[in-house]
Every structure is written in C-alpha cells, then in structure tokens.
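Internal ticket #5521
Category: modeling
Description: The requester needs a full-assembly model to guide mutagenesis choices. All entity lines are attached below as received. Residue total reported by intake: 643.
Assigned to: D.W.
Attached entities:
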Amino acid sequence: VDLHSFLSETIVGIVEGSTFVLIALGFSLIYGALGLINFAQISIYTVGGFTLWEVLKLFQQGASPSLWVYAVGILIAAGIGGLVGASVAGVTWLPLRRRSPLSLLVASLAVLVLIENLLLVLVSPSPVSVADPLQATAFTLAGVDVTESDVLLMVAGIVLSVVTVVLIQKSRFGWQVRAIADDNVSAELIGIDVRKVVFIAFAIAAGLAAIAGALISSNYGVVSYDVGITIGLKGFTAAVLGGMGNLWGALVGGLALGLIAAYSLLFLPSQWEDAVVFAVLILVLALRPTGILSTVSTDRA
Amino acid sequence: LIENPIKCGRYCRNSILAIGIIALCAVPLLSGNLFWLDVASDMTIWAVLAVGLNAVLGWAGLLDLGFIAFFAIGGYGYAILSIHHIFNVGIAVVCVLAMSLIAAVIIGTPSVRVKSDYLAIMTLGFGEIVYLAAKNLTGLTGGVNGLFGYSALTIFGVSLDSNTDFYLIGLVLLTVTCIIGFLVRRSRLGRSWILVRDDELSARAAGIRVRRVKLLAYMYGSVWATLAGILFALKIGIVSPESFSFNQSFYVVVAVVIGGMGSIWGAALGGAVYIVISEALQGIDPTLSGLIYSGLVLLFILVRPDGLFPRRLFERLFNGLNYNSPNKAHILLYTQSFPGKT
C-alpha cells in the first residue's frame, strides 16, 4: 500500500462518508427523539431519488438540467419525503405506540417494503438514471477527480448536521423532542403535544432522508426501487458507529465509515465493500454498542 | 373416559382434528399430481421455516431479519459438502447443522446483548453478509449461477428424489418441528422465552438468564431453518443467491405475523398461506407480491394481531367444555414459576 493510493482512498472515503452522513442523520434524529428504529426511513431515501427524477423529467431537462430546476427538485423531494414520513408515523407509531415495541418494529419494516413496492408498481420496476447538473470536476486531489456534486454532498452533510444539532439543542421544538426522549409521560403532563412533536420529528427525519436520496441518486446517476436496504443499512451503520442518538454521531460515524469502506478497497476486491460495512456494524454493536464517541455507557443500546 | 364427558369430548375433538389434518395432508399424495406435490412440499418447507422463526419472533420476541441466512447455510452447506463428496449425506447433514449452530452462536452472542431493535439490524447485516458471500465466493458457491448437480439424499440405499419423497420428508420434518415446538413451549425454557418477551426486568428478577435464554431461542430457530434449507436444496436441485435474499427473510416474518406471532398452528398455516399466495401470484403478476405481503403484515399487525388462525374459535372447539383448559392450566403454571406476575 503506497502513500498515493492511501491518499486517494482517503478522498474517496470522505466523499462516500458524506453520503453516509446524510442517510444517518434521519436515523439518529428519530432514535434520539423516540428511542425507536424507523425502518420506513430507508424507503424515503428512494422516494426522494424518484421525486427528483420525476421533477427533472417533468421539466424536460434530460442530460444537463439547469441548477434552478435541480434545486427545486430537491426541495420538492424534501417536501414529499416529509409528507410520506408524517403518514408513516400515522400508520405505525400512532396506532401502535402503546403496544409492544416489537409490533412497531415489524410494522415499520412492513411499511418499508410497502413503499418500495409501491414505487416498483407505480413508478418504475427498473433502475432510472437521474441527471446531475454538477458533473464538472471541482478540483483534483491525489489523482482523484472530485466533482462539484461531490463537494455539494460534503457541504450538505456538514450543513444539515449543524442545522439538526441547532434545531435540537436551541429551538423550542428541540426542547420538546428532548423532553419526550427523556420521559414520554412527563412531557405530556407538562403540556407538550407529544403527537404533534412526534409527527414533526418523523417529517423532518423523512425530509432529511429524501434530500439524501435526491442528492445521492443524482451523484450516483441512478436510483432503483430496491436500493434502500443496502444504503439504509450503511447509513444505519454510520449512525451506530458514531453513537445512536448522539447528534454529532451521524457526522463522525458517517465519515469514519466512509474511510473504513474506502481503505478496505486497498486490500479487498470492490464487491466485498458492502460486506466490510456490515461486518463493521456487527463488530461495533458487539464491542461498543454506544458508538465510538461515547465516554459513558448507557442502557440505551 | 366415558365417565368424564369433558375429557371424552376433548379426545373426540382432538381425534377429529387429527384425522382432518392427516386427510388434508394426504390429498396431494392421493392426487399424484406432480404440480400439487411440488407446491405441497414447498408449503411444508415454509411451514418449518415459519414454525422455527415463531420460536424466535413469537416466543422470545426477537425480530430476526436474517433468518434466511440459516436457510442458506443449510442449502449451500449441504450442496458444497455433497458436491465435493466430503462425507456421505448423513454425516453431511450433521456437519451442516453444526456449522449453522456455530454461526448462530457467533452472531447470536453479540446480538442478544443489545436492545432488541438493534438485534433486528444486526441480524439483517448478518443476512446480507451471507447473501454477499453466496454471491461473491464464486469458487465455493458458484456465484450468481449457483450450485447444482449435487447428490440426492439416500437412505438405506433408496434414493429419495421424487416429488412424493420430498413431500413426505417435508411432512415428517414439519411434524417433528411442531411436536418439539409444543414440548419446548411447555418446558421451562419455553416459558422463560415468553416472560423475557413480555417483561425482561421481571424475567431477570425471577432468575432467568436473559441473554442465555435469548441465545438459545436464536439457536433453536436456526436448527429448523437449516434443516428446511437442506430439504429445499434437495428438492429444487440448485442453490443460488436469489433464494436467500432479504426479501425471503421478510417473507418468513410475514408468515409468522399472518399466523399470529406465537402460535405454532398459526405459523405453520402462515407458511402454507405464503406459498399459496405466491403460487397464485405467479399466474397473475409476480411483481405484486411485495405489495401484497407487506400490506398483509400491516393489516394483521394493526387490525388482527392474533393472526389468521381463529384462536378464539379454536379454543372454544377444544376447551369450550373444559373450564380447566390446558391453556388456563398453563397460565397457572406460568404464574407459579414466576410469582407476582399474572
């Protein structure tokens, strides 16, 4: 392993890590707020990708869409994703919140498969190619061409992380979310509208997932109805690696996972990259279930 | 017996039900129709899978999303050992079971230490790793093309390779699965699973070693999935990665949920219903399958958590006359072993 390939894999890893950051954010948010894992989140990623594709198609912007249409497409994706996320909360969390956590988990899994298959039946059974207006190379580092779209991913990952942290730590909404996370019943007693807050939290998390879906799909240039499980599992791994519920966890875990995945390419053929990521997931949960950031062990995991 | 009308009634009903089930199982055999036999053996395989997962998901309350990995280990393990003629088939089956149990311990030990929703993710990751291994270890597993051309099961010089044979083996396996299931459910271990599922804190207080009990559930489930996988490999004659993808893991969960998590009869029925639906969809539009199964799961979870099986009707049929029904006695047993919990 020479220095040059190490450096270039570092760049690749940071770019790939940014995608993990974007996906992990939504998981962290919902887990931090409600202590539950929302599988349906995974499918919102795909919804976001397909929404951007539909918008670009609608405006007849084939190979090189204008930046405005692209931006509008991402915003619409975020909006639709948010709406779908809120409906997911209505179908799973609302009716099942007083039942066992297991049924909630199974229900959110079923919603994941349901949404993916709705996309399969209603939109497209085969992968669709999503155009990317930012294909130009921004700069070249260590022999790796970093495109403008890669830069956008990195910037979006950092900005959205900061926005989420500020939202949770500084805003009134964040204060309510933390109260609910702390003690559901007491939060209700002091007059927090738990339902409303949870719905908004689901919507925000889903909006983040949809933005991730739109950005990453256009960066990869392709989205299909069944990409969710693999990509979602990676995002989840990033969230766990950084520490679930830890607000900076998504950022740190995502970048760390990106680097691990990229460095694994130095030793293994590329078709094993996913297996490496999942092995990291199992190892982290086995050895340090609270993530690499935490200093104290909690009973959360 | 005659003097006790309650007992007599129960025996009558039990024997009527037993005769009914046997008659139902005999239909594909008597028909001699190859297609029906094929579908029926698929039904037994999936029923075994579902009854196996039922112990993990329904009793111990662990959402195992990589259950099909053990099915894959069974299928691939048997195929690999038998292609390379490493052992004769009987020893191969034992070896595959041992391999599967080792895998279950390796994955189960860390999984049962974390919260149950993390367990779902961990097992999902494990399932994906096994799937990727099947796809990418081309030398060992044949890659995407799969493995074929391995030898059939031979018992006492008789080669078991017709649809009738597979169906009969499946029926035997299913019967064994169910009987052991009923025994385990009534054992101390089975009762511990239920308590761990319902209230882990009380379970711990009652002196149950929660992690060990969960690990045993995971291992117990893996045994049946492995055996079902071996039978599947024998029957279908080719093992390829697509038979062991995440969707399949989800479908086993579907079967258990349709059956009403926790019921052996329900799980077996759920496995059979899954095959019926998927066969019916083959004729209509296979792309609808994901939609229909996920819709069914949502519907059952939200509207009818007891599952397809008419449990109330069933209880009335069997225990209606008998106040001290086995179920009630069972609750009594349960409260006695864990005082303070009703």
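Resolution: model delivered.
Comment from assignee: The first strand of chain B starts at residue 147 and ends at 148.
Ticket closed.
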